[in-house]
Write a structure and sequence with these properties.
Elements (H helix, E strand, L loop, with lengths): L2 E5 L10 H8 L3 E4 L17 E4 L5 H14 L3 E5 L10 H10 L3 E4 L4 H9 L12 E4 L14 H4 L5 E5 L5 H12 L4 E6 L7 E6 H11 L5 E5 L24
Parallel strand pairs: 1-4, 1-5, 2-3, 2-4, 6-7
Antiparallel strand pairs: 7-10, 8-9, 8-10
Helix pairs in contact: 2-3, 6-7
Length: about 250
């Protein structure tokens, strides 16, 4: 059997990839994060599939379920929100499977930051304004940040910063980024991106934390800070320039 780590996308059920949906439909066992994955996606599973919500399970219990399916000869869909490559906690699951000799594959999904950018109708990389995107989070009691990856250090780059799992700490985000980005820097928060209850908050860096508080946003949100969010006057990309020598492509 094979374990398939499948990115379920940011929230809307129809934002799972075609490959993800097809893989889900072929697995007899599905482990899913019930608090984050839309229930509509479970309709893609075979009618007789064993479905298990992992919201209340720890890593040992999840691993035990994966090994049980392996012993029974069943392929497993391990359904994660967003994309497995960032903030998905799949690394420790893969490590356990490697140790047990259980094969697995990864099916990418639409990440939350991409859904948020789509909702904002913004390209995050704009010519001459910003060409770098930093995906990060803030330190909390659960997991400390590695040395050199604190916001004060990352903020020195001036690049667009995308923060996951940080809405609860919006005040701290503003405090650490203000010296590098300035009070007037565009900022935005997108909660529940792509879902029916999606909420978009726009403002400047010095006011975004208060707006987040007033909206009551505490989780399932992406914070973005950077000049590309408000860029209007910028050079056209060389990609479609009439001066580009297209025969060299």
């Amino acid at each position: 059997m094979t374990v398939y780590f499948i990115g379920a996308g940011p929230g809307a059920a129809d934002l799972i990839t075609v490959r993800g949906a097809r893989t889900l439909a072929a697995c007899q066992v599905c482990l899913y994060a019930g608090s984050l994955v839309p229930r509509e996606l479970l309709a893609e599973c075979p009618p007789d599939a064993r479905l298990l919500d992992t919201a209340q399970l720890d890593l040992d219990e999840i691993t035990a379920e994966l090994l049980r399916a392996h012993e029974e000869g069943h392929d497993v869909a391990r359904l994660h929100s967003g994309d497995p490559s960032v903030f998905s906690a799949v690394a420790e699951q893969m490590r356990r499977l490697d140790a047990a000799g259980v094969p697995y594959e990864v099916v990418p999904g639409v990440p939350a930051f991409a859904a948020a950018a789509a909702s904002l109708k913004r390209e995050l990389t704009v010519p001459t304004v910003g060409q770098t995107v930093i995906l990060t989070r803030v330190a909390n009691r659960a997991t400390a940040m590695p040395e050199g990856e604190d916001l004060a250090t990352l903020g020195r780059s001036g690049a667009l910063i995308v923060l996951h799992l940080a809405a609860k700490y919006a005040d701290r985000v503003v405090e650490e980024l203000l010296p590098h980005y300035g009070a007037d820097c565009p900022a935005a928060v997108v909660a529940y991106a792509s879902r029916p209850d999606e909420l978009i908050i726009r403002g400047t860096l010095d006011e975004i934390a208060q707006k987040v508080k007033e909206a009551g946003v505490l989780r399932t949100a992406v914070i973005m800070v950077g000049r590309t969010l408000g860029a209007e006057q910028f050079r056209d990309s060389h990609l479609y320039s009439p001066e580009r020598e297209r025969h060299l492509c």
